[in-house]
Amino acid sequence: MIPVSLVTGFLGSGKTSFIRRVLTQPGFGRTAVIVNEFGEISLDHDLIASSDDKVLTLTTGCLCCAVQTDLARTLLDLADRRQDGASYDRVLIETSGLGNPGPMIQAMLTDGQVTATHRVDRIVTLVDAVFGETTLADHAEAREQVALADLVLVSKEDLKPLSARLHGAIRGLNPTARLRSAVDVTADTLFGSAPVERLDRLTQPAVGGHRAIETFTLVRDQPLPALALTLLLQAIAEHCGSRLLRLKGMVALEEMPGRPAVIHGVRHVFSAPEFLDRWPSADQTTRIVFIGQGIPRYFVHRLLSAIEDEVRDAAAAS
């Protein structure tokens, strides 16, 4: 599977400078970079070795291309090039400054050809230390970018240190994401064992209700029947739909002891579970994080309890 990470951030957050800088690092060789609009990346001329109408080959070994029609088609076109000898092992997508990464993830999860060859690794959001607090207060797009992130990178700290107020605003929107400086980022920061790493760090989040985006974690100490998980995701898709910005979790199933299922969802779309070979830590509890708007946490907890009871009663009666 080809890992795919998204880099997002509001206008002026420094995505272009960040992308240009990381592409010069040796560790980012063999990376394909997709941008929404090619003109948004001012690649230095000395980075470019050769190009055609769609793809630039960089001296670092990276490929860079623009979205030609839609994201799924672009990913598959790049994968075809990989089969023909194009040298890359992972994909980094830069979204536009006003873009919500949710639809991009949804597009990747709904195309069978894409899901057969690619997996979402990390969602990375840049926040400007200088104007980030105002941006988050004024723009819903910026708040959703932070809320959906697995990793929040603070840029422009050379101009202004991360303030306590900006730190609080970020944590109010997304208590579970890793938060660090955008300086000295390595390939391992943006890629690599993301489901294990991010879910192993989950804690019970606070509520960012003042931003109209809430996040909470459903926790279960005992393994669930696989059917209960299937029915739960179906019910969430039906009843929560557009209010569910993102779902991610690690689930213990009775039928797969010792092999947790990693699940992802955006809106009403869920990817097929990915089963890990083992738990990443001694904590083997089920943890499912919900990021959404207007989804009562009691509804999800009661829904799972009702589904679990029904599945167990049906199994006992059969």
CATH class of the largest domain: Alpha Beta
CATH superfamily of the largest domain: P-loop containing nucleotide triphosphate hydrolases
Which fold does the CATH topology of the largest domain refer to? Rossmann fold
Distance between the termini: 39 Å
Principal-axis shape: globular
How much is the radius of gyration in Å?
Answer: 20 Å
- Please summarize the sheet with the most strands: 9 strands, mixed
Low-confidence stretches: 37-53, 194-211
Helix run count: 11
The strand line-up of the biggest sheet is 3-4-5-2-6-1-7-8-9
Structural class: alpha/beta
Task: Specify the helix fraction band.
Answer: 25-40%
CATH architecture label of the largest domain: 3-Layer(aba) Sandwich
- Beta-strand share of residues: 25-35%
Mean pLDDT reading: 79
**How many beta-strand segments?**
15
